[in-house]
Amino acid sequence: MGMTVVEKILARAADRPSVTVGDVVEPRVDLAMSHENAALVINQYLEVFQGTGIAPKVWDPSRIAIIFDHRVPAESPKTATNHKKIRGFVAANGITKFHDVRGDVGGICHQILPEYGYVRPGFVVVGTDSHTTSHGALGAFSFGVGATEMASAWALGIAVNIEVPATIKVVVKGEFPPMVGPKDLILHLIGLLTAQGANFKVLEFHGETIRQMSTSGRIAICNMSVEAGATSGIVPGDAETVRYLREEAGVTDAIDCVTPDADASYVRTVEIDVSALAPQIACPHMVDNVKPIEQVLGIPVQQIVIGSCTNGRLDDLAAAAAILRGKKVAEGTRMLVFPASSKIFAQALDKGYIHDFMRAGAVVMNSGCGPCLGVHEGALGDNEVALSTTNRNFKGRMGNPTGEVYLCSPVVAAASAITGVITDPRKGA
Amino acid sequence: MPKVIIALDNDISTDDIYPGRFMATVLPTETPQYAFFDRTDFNAALKAKTFPPGSVIVGGENFGCGSSREQACSTLKGYDLAVVARSISRIFLQNSINLGLQVVICPGIEASVGHELEITADHVLNRTTGQSFDQVKLPAARKGIMDAGGLIPYTRARLMARG
To answer: Alpha carbon of B47 to those of B32, B54, B57, B126: distances in Å?
Structure first.
């Protein structure tokens, strides 16, 4: 029987001719990514070696990536001290894929990894962040783990005792209507599947719409695959993957795209036609509480957020800036923009998008996770409402348990910033 | 006999269990103070050590969805609580096993605060209502880690075996 993409990747990484759903394998890890929670990984990692008589040594410093993004610049002495501790570990262990708090090479981990060519098709990637699913956009099997599992990977270089997951095939056809795009597709899919519909499963994306989608859009859909519970989202590597890695990430060595067998076995197939899809909104307080925009128009919004690992890339900023150019953010509404990386920030400066945002009254912040996880840079006041291009809207997510978060695409966020209420961008705001 | 100390809805997120604003706190000795921080009364009862070890949190579907933050498990492990839920999100389940937090998947569980639960090898018995519920076995792949007492001792043993 044929294999899915993830089955092929796991078979290769575990030196087996084939694997099937439910097999237990221990794949080699090609890349192990952490952010600020490396502070906890370091503790767990050192504890592994206690009493063994073996000096702590990471299995391969060139395969460890650490990117500061969740709380940059540090919002508290505690975070600053965690940063300091991690810098010490990075230096002592010769970890080169390290991105500190910087305006040239800094940014969100899920943008930095593709941007610097750290991920390739066929890789096994683990990350101490649930949105590590993002890197399936480049044809890798990429999944989130906890800090102790990362410590184990740092020590052993393998992911221990992985059950080969079942795969759901998602086939997408049709051309997006104007003002509708990948974010609307993934919100729609999460609504269909529910928040646990893909728990312990992989979402493998196919169809003409996916083939024609940019890597940026693919990152958005793989990023949010975890909101349906998926272990990983994956777009089998193709011409666009190679183009992105060569032209945008500067990769020069061989790229080996892994594709599924024609007779691969899927637990379920979901078909979606996007040609009549409306802008989608995930309503409080669950990501699967998804409605077409018509059902939520006019809801007043106090905070608009554009950015995050889901929608902070150059095409997202370009689309939002085009709507805001020459307009003003509504009185009583504040708008925050977080480019996903320093590189994107610089590109947006060159293109004039940053000026568009500032003249409209938006506050452009440094690259990072910003208010997405409610730590700093844009907490909500009591009972305030946010409309955000981020990926989660759980109660308390933006720092205040009485706040409400609606999730949307960049163009919906931009159109709504001008009016101060949830607004349909198709109506020419 | 362990008692149910809180019965929760579906889709309890890790932001609910351990809010993101406390993520700079990582030590398992320090995380318990923030457990369910925004459920003020429950957080206070936990901190006051009102509940004996082994007390049970009952959850609905998709318990522990969201972030991979391990603090969501260490914060509960710190009070020696157990989780019995209808289904559990993948990363939370794996983190729990890795840290030795007792988690039980029990699709039919019906239990309210104050009910006494007996957790056997493959059932959960609600001693208060007399009902018995089947457990779903934890992923087979994780058994070695559970048997070792968590992922740290498991990894340590693997490392030693390599020599």
So the answer is: 8, 15, 15, 26
